[in-house]
Design brief:
The protein is built from 22 helices and 11 strands. The protein is an alpha/beta fold and about 475 residues long.
């Protein structure tokens, strides 16, 4: 299928399925799986991966049709670099193969790590508090039917239970999603669900299962028909599972595993004792500025992050947000933050990476707390300015109001879309809507909604966006400073 010169240079039959990964999305394919493939290629690692999708089965079906091979292409403005990934040993789709087949795959003796990239909403937690959402329909189901789970926490608990019954070694559970202390969040939702089901099992998890935190960074845009067509010429075939990404790669991992791990550090990962400072830096400076550009860029008619970067005011605003309002909130040391900010701007300017503002704007209710709201709390406690953060929140509020500046409908993709739609439908477009959205405790907690300063600053920028539009509002903010 693939050109012979692109095929893996190692014996795939020597791989053992030692990792089960949940969430076979574009990011994982271009990040964690690639890192493991580099290990197999360059260092004779035998750590193979069983890929699992809980919802859509199309990618799994396509992967199986391609003998579990797919391509990753790094793109810059003027070059392409492609490799074919061969480290996948098995692929399952929960709805097609059955959830028991997934639990059974996780319960094999060789499996030492369960990893996941399911986005923030997959954890069924309250983003503002990090606690398990016991009212979530999937969690309610898994409490009453623990052996037929439908949620990520329920699946993990069921697999731990089966392994324990069989006397198998414990595994490590490694989140690779964009949440601060993602290992702690994962531990919390798994423990809290287990406690609802079986107190003895919860005790076992507390004593035996490791939940290492990670920080991941690579821009991996959604595939387009045009990109697929371009790749087909290079690959010598059409790869339905292909991904493209930027050359930059970073993976910081808390070195806390109970049953071993691959030597990922040999393939470019960083193994550290404490991931949190790196997580905060990336979530607030990169992801926070990405969300800022996504909402205000989409409202202005910019389809891609690189389009935003062609507007000097947006470029200046993004860099200022990183350094003036996000960097002061961080605890990281021995990192040149202005240089980090400049590197992010350079990455955003890569025109070959068509990272859609609409794609980044999805699931905002899950992203705002860690990308912006914790920083706003820091500024409130320290009496410092947070105008750009407030403008970002106002941009999100305009976005979830569901109509762009040209009067066209915005299709909101968010787990709280019903609550958001209710807020919008029940309030006039102005201060009342700002207050109604701020009152969503699952996002803003109680403290921010109760702050007159927060409401005033967000309300002021919301009015500017209403009356002047996003481009002019960003221009005026930059020109006033």
């Amino acid at each position: 299928m693939f050109s012979a010169e692109l095929l893996p240079n190692y014996d795939r039959s020597a791989l053992r399925t030692r990792i089960v990964h949940i969430g076979f999305g574009a990011f994982h394919r271009a990040h964690q799986a690639l890192c493991s493939d580099l290990l197999a290629s360059d260092h004779h690692s035998d750590w193979g991966i069983c890929e699992v999708n809980l919802n859509s089965g199309e990618l799994i079906t396509a992967l199986r049709a391609q003998s579990l091979l797919y391509s990753v292409t790094e793109m810059t403005d003027d070059s392409l670099s492609t490799r074919v990934i061969g480290v996948v040993t098995h692929a399952l789709h929960a709805q097609g193969d059955g959830i028991d087949a997934v639990i059974e795959a996780m319960s094999q003796p060789d499996v030492a790590i369960i990893s996941m990239t399911v986005t923030e909403k997959g954890y069924c937690h309250q983003p503002a508090s990090g606690q398990l959402n016991l009212q979530h329909p999937s969690i309610q189901h898994d409490i009453s039917q623990p052996d037929a789970p439908v949620s990520l926490p329920g699946l993990i608990v069921a697999a731990i239970k089966r392994r324990r019954q069989r006397g198998l070694p414990p595994f490590s559970v490694m989140s690779c999603d964009n949440m601060p202390e993602n290992g702690q969040v994962t531990r919390q939702v798994v423990m809290q669900l287990a406690q609802q089901q079986d107190a003895a099992l919860a005790k076992y998890i507390a004593e035996h299962i490791a939940f290492p935190s990670t920080m991941v960074d690579r821009i991996v845009p959604a595939m387009t028909p045009e990109t697929l067509s371009t790749l087909s010429d290079k690959l010598g075939c059409r790869d339905e599972v292909a991904v493209v990404c930027e050359p930059f790669f970073q993976w910081v991992i808390e070195d806390k595993f109970v049953s071993g791990r691959p030597a990922w550090e040999k393939a470019g990962a960083e193994l550290v004792a404490d991931v949190l400072p790196f997580e905060q830096m990336k979530l607030r400076m990169l992801n926070g500025s990405h969300s800022f550009l996504a909402y205000l860029g989409y409202l202005a008619g910019y389809q891609h992050i690189s389009d935003c970067m062609a507007d000097e005011n947006y470029l200046i605003a993004a860099r200022r947000l990183m350094l003036a309002e996000q960097a002061p909130t961080l605890n990281i040391t021995q990192v040149d933050l202005p240089a980090y900010a400049d590197s992010l701007i350079t990455r955003y300017q890569n025109r070959a990476i068509k990272h859609r503002t609409y794609q980044i704007a999805s699931d905002g209710s899950q992203k705002l707390p860690q990308r912006w709201l914790d920083s706003i709390r820091w500024h409130l406690n320290n009496g410092s300015d947070f105008d750009l953060l407030a403008l970002g929140v106002a941009g999100w509020m305009r976005y979830v109001s569901g109509v762009d500046e040209q009067g066209a409908a915005i299709i909101i993709n968010d787990p709280l879309k019903e609550q958001l739609a209710q807020c919008v439908a029940s309030t006039p477009d102005g201060p009342a809507r700002v207050q109604a959205l701020l009152a969503l405790e699952a996002i803003f907690g109680r403290d921010l909604a109760a702050s007159p300063l927060v409401a005033a600053r967000i309300g002021e920028f919301y009015h500017q966006l209403q009356t002047q539009g996003a481009r002019e509002t960003v221009r005026q903010m930059i020109s006033h400073d």
